[in-house]
Write a structure and sequence with these properties.
The complex is a heterotetramer of chains A (235), B (544), C (335) and D (99).
Chain B lengths: L22 H5 L4 H29 L10 H36 L8 H24 L12 H5 L4 H28 L12 H33 L12 H35 L6 H14 L15 H29 L8 H24 L1 H7 L3 H31 L5 H28 L13 H31 L50
Helix pairs in contact in B: 2-3, 2-4, 2-15, 3-4, 3-6, 3-7, 3-8, 3-13, 4-6, 6-7, 7-8, 7-9, 8-9, 8-10, 8-11, 8-13, 9-10, 10-11, 11-13, 11-14, 13-14, 14-15
Chain C lengths: L22 H34 L16 H28 L8 E8 L2 E5 L5 E3 L1 E5 L3 E8 L4 E5 L4 E5 L5 E6 L4 E7 L12 E6 L1 H9 L7 H11 L24 E3 L5 E3 L2 H9 L23 H13 L19
Parallel strand pairs in C: 1-5, 4-10
Antiparallel strand pairs in C: 1-2, 2-3, 5-8, 6-7, 6-9, 9-10, 11-12
Helix pairs in contact in C: 1-2, 4-6
Chain D lengths: L6 H21 L7 H21 L7 H27 L10
Helix pairs in contact in D: 1-2
The chains are: A mainly alpha (235), B mainly alpha (544), C alpha+beta (335), D mainly alpha (99).
């Protein structure tokens, strides 16, 4: 393996061969993450687009089907994610300032709240499962006995579309959360091994951007899926 | 020192090819040049595979009765031709091969910003290709490359999900390449390489990358929805259970129209390099050519509705998309005019790459102008979904993009391999390609206006004369593509040594040795002049 | 149109333009000629420039370095603005024609076409039904209402320069005015599966007397209105929807073509699409004064052809005359 | 690299976001007709801007980053907006001429 010629005099062990300086490497990594988030925006944008059209086509069915989601869980999860975002932001700050101990604690807090979110999500999915509201499993889908859906196959189909969007969007979001938690565990392990210092903390920074993005997606999913029309039964 | 590529008598400089040996050194490489070579090999395989399907289509259409294969088989042929050519050849072709190899070199970087992601993108591409090929092996897909619902989601009895998975996966390869380019071009330019000095090939690849990054996720999600719909029948695109098939078309074309700019923009970038080098003159109107690339990338997202004028989309939406479709023709026209003007008072060489460039200008002009027919509402009503569209699309893609790709391969072959190809054979096959191409696709314009619908296995007998011409032309075209493949292979071992800069071209990639060393440059170059400054004397060649 | 070698035997003729047999066809052709002329001129100019430059400025010695030319803002503006202005004329002309063809004249006669893998089922208000054949009189505007039973098809008549996709789950319409008696191709232009290329038929344009003659034979099952009335009873619609008095559902006489007040305060035109939706998805729009969830959905129970018959029947009720003397819609033009 | 927001401003943002979540939740219990969704999305947009500007510290980032963030949302609006053009105007029937 040929070493690059003209290597920098004080070679930082974290500097990869093809970069000239730590700053260039850091800037590239952050820009790379932003471009990645750009694709993520469009990824969720596609789902929002389809959601928008069907919601405008079947407003009544969407509004009444939304009553099957528990907005209290949704709100709880929003709050949980916001806390995790706060701890993530503080973790990045600690990394900037080279506070290794604080960084590790804050990462653990972030992971904890991320897991809380996933736990709540799992409880919700389980409730839908018990209620036979999971559309992808054939035969479970039957509205005939629920009072808000009289014997109307058509209506049930439209309701099913909303539930599909619900599972599709929250499912993709949950996948992002799982990836995020995995990322945070890796970052924590790296921090624990003392990989970071105030001149090298790129992974913390870009994972933070990712984490906040996943939070933002949820900020939109919450009103779009749980609070359609207006909430009638608040538990 | 025993591999075919290496010959100790001739290539002495340390380069990316002789840096390491063995299959592991290729499959685990992080060198953008080696990854580009991996891509060249894979897309060549896909190109010939897609070409075989094209040949079978043309053979079937020789007679109007549909007597060679049955209709299901024919439908699978054109579907596989489309999927393979669009998603596994045209989209990755120039960015992932020539772009991968030369974008870092042209801006004076040692590698792309994320070499491991670059390698990952190749593996993802291969996984996607394997999905698509397994769909072929299992029995094929018959939806057309456009996967229109509800046919694809409900009615087709073929391996739609497998093929859609292939396209979905390959999309991520495209996204990662685009991401890598954007960051590289922003952050890795050599000192002095300002945006105003970037070679136009880099500008074109930058614009392409923007489309890849912004558009591909939408088609990924759309195909995921089609897969879900097909597997579980959830009703998103099926009108029988409350869905709307037109929404699929909107979401599909949101990506797939800009995707044709993913295919053609890098070709335009190659063109700018060829025309300047073989006219030995800076490009006419550099700023306009550069800006038109970005213009195409942006406006390209505003025109997708012209694929849907007869679908029952709103009349007013049709009006909107029609007007903007004309607008996107302006930057393309600017490019054509500027290349032509560049040749004015140049010193024009007839080397093979320039022959391909001449071909590109001519064929792309026809392809672009016939696009205007399709943007004109009342005419589109008649010609959409006929062979007119097929001809227009192939004029832009084969006459434009593949011409540019071939030109680029000939142009940079000496840099990539250190060897020259045989000029006589190359000129001959360039001529074959041009003649064969026109013979294949020009008659289809007429057949299309006569009303021959596309994707027809059997057709009305009065169209036969045009189809006979097409099939004859396709034969010539096929030979025109096989000859270069043979002599390129030959030149790897027997081609004359090219030297560092056989064309006396400008550009950082020509200032390093051929083939380039692993990190491209002995020392990071410092750029002091505009792109294509042919009037200023050449720097002393270093290296060797 | 056929090239000048029209005297050759038919098998050796090479057609360049399709036959032109509708009022639209000529106007589209003129625009097409204009576009072709511009294309030919532009292509010739570019080819000539490339060719002349390539010859005139060919490299004469290996070391030749031409003087640089950086560009010219004026030229750049000229060759972006002028082509765009020309293109605006394409846009304007094309859009005019497109919009002129958008809505059929009020006196157009109706024909109903249902696309199904892989055939076209045509029915006439007078009761004729045929497959892959469409008979129309010359010189009378014809409105075709298009529906699909499965996938997207496209109703394409090259000689009329007309095409419209047939999207399942909705109605599309197109109209034409045939100018020349003859037999013309009818194609399915949107890929629809195995026998897509077999989904072809013929449009027969006939003189008025021939057409009347043709109409007189056939229609064994009665007119579409009668067929629709039969279905109306068969599906039990009549139990809730009475013709002249209020039932559980809205009264249907005089509904078609009027503006309906909905219970959310909006009003809507009662057209084919509205009636179709009301049958298949009754809860989508509720007429003011009625409750939702009363009427069951008939999705999947009535064929597309049956739906069209019901619509024609309800349409016939728009005319407030006693039943029996109702003229079939589409035949008004003859009176 | 660049200026970091203070811990205080982080906590303030967190407080605002949490309060906004409750506001969204509360407003959804009031029937505003079509305006429910508008209000909910406006609040969500406001929350998003807070996260982007402060938590992700885009406020102090280079213009390039801001451009990319803006581009992402611009393109999403292009997708939603242009699809909406079709759906909104689909039932408008022209009467034989363009305008």
């Amino acid at each position: 393996m040929a070493e690059p010629h003209g290597a920098v005099a004080e070679h930082n062990p974290n500097l990869r061969h093809h970069f000239d300086s730590m700053e260039q490497q850091f800037d590239s990594a952050t820009l790379g993450m932003w471009v990645f988030l750009l694709t993520e925006i469009m990824f969720f944008g596609g789902m929002f687009c389809a959601y928008m059209i069907y919601r405008s086509m079947y407003p009544a069915a969407f509004a009444s089907t939304s009553q099957h989601m528990n907005p209290l869980w949704g709100a709880t999860n929003t709050a949980v994610l916001i806390v995790s975002s706060l701890s993530m932001a503080l973790a990045v700050r600690a990394a900037h300032l080279g506070q290794q101990k604080a960084l590790q604690i804050l990462l653990l807090i972030t992971i904890f709240f991320g897991l809380c979110f996933l736990g709540v999500k799992a409880i919700e999915y389980h409730e839908h499962w018990v209620d036979n509201k999971v559309p992808l499993i054939g035969g479970h889908w039957d509205y005939s006995n629920t009072p808000e859906f009289p014997n109307q196959a058509q209506y049930a189909r439209q309701a099913q579309i909303l539930f599909c969007f619900y599972f599709f969007m929250t499912g993709f979001h949950a996948v992002h959360m799982i990836v995020g938690v995995g990322l945070m565990l890796t970052i924590f392990a790296m921090a624990h091994k003392g990989k970071f210092n105030s001149s090298y903390f790129t992974p913390v920074e870009i994972s933070g951007l990712y984490w906040h993005f996943v939070d933002i997606v949820w900020i939109f999913l919450f009103p779009l899926l749980y609070l359609i029309g207006h909430t009638k039964n608040l538990i | 020192m025993s591999t075919v590529l290496q010959d100790p008598r001739t290539i002495e400089t340390p380069n990316y090819l002789n840096a390491e040996y063995g299959w592991k050194s290729w499959l685990f490489t992080k060198d953008h040049k080696r990854i580009a070579v991996l891509y060249i090999i894979s897309i060549t395989v896909m190109f010939f595979l897609g070409g075989i399907f094209a040949g079978l289509i043309r053979l079937e259409l020789l007679t109007p009765q549909g007597d060679l294969v049955n209709s299901d088989t024919y439908n699978k042929f054109f579907t596989m031709h489309g999927i393979i050519m669009v998603f596994f050849f045209l989209i990755p072709s120039i960015p992932a091969t020539l772009g991968n190899f030369f974008v870092p070199m042209m801006i004076g970087a040692k590698d792309l910003a994320f070499p491991r992601i670059n390698l990952l993108s190749w593996y993802i591409y291969i996984i996607g290709a394997l999905f698509a090929l397994s769909a072929v092996v299992m029995g094929g897909v018959d939806t057309g490359w456009t996967f229109y619902t509800p046919f694809s989601s409900t009615f087709s009895n073929t391996f739609v999900i497998t093929a859609a998975c292939g396209v979905f996966v390959a999309g991520f390869s495209s996204i990662l390449t685009g991401l890598n380019f954007i960051v590289t071009i922003h952050k890795m330019r050599a000192p002095g390489m300002t945006w105003g000095r970037l070679p136009l090939f880099v500008w074109a690849n930058y614009a392409t990358s923007l489309i890849q990054v912004l558009g591909t996720p939408v088609v990924a999600i759309t195909l995921a929805l089609v897969g879900l719909e097909r597997a579980f029948h959830i009703g998103i695109f099926d009108p029988a259970i409350g869905g709307d098939p037109i929404l699929f078309q909107h979401m599909f074309w949101f990506y797939s129209h800009p995707a044709v700019y993913i295919m053609i923009l890098p070709g335009m970038g190659v063109m700018s390099e060829l025309v300047t080098c073989f006219s030995r003159k800076g490009v006419f109107g550099y700023a306009f050519v550069a800006a038109s690339s970005i213009g195409i990338a942006v406006i390209g997202f505003l025109v997708w509705g012209h694929h849907m004028f007869v679908t029952g989309m709103s009349m007013y939406a049709s009006l909107y998309f029609s007007l903007l479709s004309f607008l996107v023709a302006v930057p393309s026209a600017i490019k054509i005019f500027n290349w032509t003007a560049t040749m004015f008072r140049g010193s024009i060489s007839y080397a093979t790459p320039m022959l391909y460039a001449f071909g590109f200008i001519g064929l792309f002009t026809i392809g672009g102008l016939t696009g205007l027919f399709l943007a004109t509402l009342a005419v589109d009503v008649h010609v959409t979904d006929t062979y007119f569209v097929v001809a227009h699309f192939h004029y832009v893609m084969v006459g434009g993009m593949v011409m540019a790709y071939m030109g680029g391969m000939h142009f940079w072959w000496p840099k990539i391999t250190g060897r020259m190809y045989p000029e006589g054979w190359a000129k001959f096959s360039a001529l074959l390609v041009f003649v064969g191409f026109n013979c294949t696709f020009f008659p289809q314009f007429i057949a299309g206006y006569l009303g021959q619908p596309r994707r027809y296995h059997a057709y009305a007998p009065e169209f036969q004369v045009y189809n006979v011409f097409s099939t004859a032309g396709a034969t010539i075209l096929g030979v025109g593509y096989i000859i270069p493949f043979i002599y390129f292979m030959w030149s790897l071992k027997y081609g004359p040594i090219a030297g560092n800069n056989p064309w006396k071209a400008k550009g950082l990639e020509w200032e390093t040795t051929s083939p380039p060393p692993t990190y491209n440059f002995e020392t990071t170059p410092i750029v002091t002049e505009e792109a294509y400054a042919y009037a200023t004397p050449h720097k002393e060649e270093h290296g060797g | 149109m056929v090239l000048p070698w029209g005297g050759l035997p038919k098998t050796m003729q090479i057609p360049l333009f399709p036959e032109s047999a509708s009022t639209t066809a000529d106007s589209v052709d003129y625009l097409y000629y204009y576009l072709t002329a511009v294309t030919v001129v532009m292509t010739t100019l570019i080819f000539a420039a490339v060719f002349i430059f390539a010859i005139k400025y060919r490299r004469r010695s290996e070391d030749e370095i031409p003087a640089p030319i950086h560009g010219s803002i004026r030229l750049e503006i000229a060759w972006s603005v002028i082509p765009f202005l020309i293109m605006l004329t394409f846009f304007w002309w094309g859009a005019q024609l497109f919009f002129a063809n958008a809505s059929p004249p009020a006196d157009a006669m109706d024909v109903y076409a249902v696309g199904k893998q892989w055939m076209w089922k045509i029915q006439y208000p007078e009761g004729q039904r045929e497959i892959n054949e469409l008979h129309v009189p010359v010189g009378r505007p014809v409105k075709v209402t298009l529906a699909s039973e499965d996938v997207i098809h496209s109703f394409f008549i090259p000689a009329f320069r007309l095409k419209h996709d047939v999207v399942p789950g909705r109605y599309d319409t197109m109209w034409f005015n045939a100018t020349k008696p003859g037999r013309y191709h009818l194609f399915c232009a949107e890929y629809c599966g195995t026998e897509h290329s077999g989904m072809v038929g013929w449009v027969t344009v006939m003189t008025e007397p021939d057409y009347e003659n043709w109409l007189a034979n056939g229609g064994a099952e009665g007119t579409m209105v009668q067929q629709g009335e039969r279905l109306f009873g068969q599906y039990g619609c009549v139990t809730c929807h009475q013709l002249d008095q209020q039932g559980r559902g809205p009264m249907l006489r005089g509904v078609y073509g009027s503006r309906i007040q909905l219970n959310d305060g909006k009003t809507i035109l009662a057209d084919d699409a509205f009636i179709r939706e009301s049958i298949l998805n009754p809860n989508a729009k509720i007429v003011a004064g009625y409750k939702s969830d009363v009427m069951p959905s008939f999705q999947g129970q009535i064929s597309e052809e049956g739906l069209l018959q019901l619509i024609v029947y309800i349409k016939s009720l728009a005319i407030t005359k006693a039943p029996g003397t109702v003229a079939a819609p589409g035949t008004e033009g003859k009176q | 690299m660049h200026q970091l927001p203070s811990v205080r401003s982080y906590v303030l943002v967190w407080l605002t976001l949490t309060i906004m979540t409750f506001v969204t939740f509360y407003i959804s219990t009031i029937d505003l007709g079509d305006w429910n969704i508008v209000v909910a999305l406006l609040i969500a947009f406001f929350k998003m801007m807070l996260v982007i500007l402060i938590f992700m510290n885009v406020k102090a980032e280079s213009p390039l980053t801001k451009l990319f963030v803006g581009a992402g949302f611009f393109w999403m609006v292009l997708l939603l907006g242009q699809v909406a053009i079709d759906y909104i105007s689909r039932t408008w029937m022209p009467e034989g001429k363009m305008w």
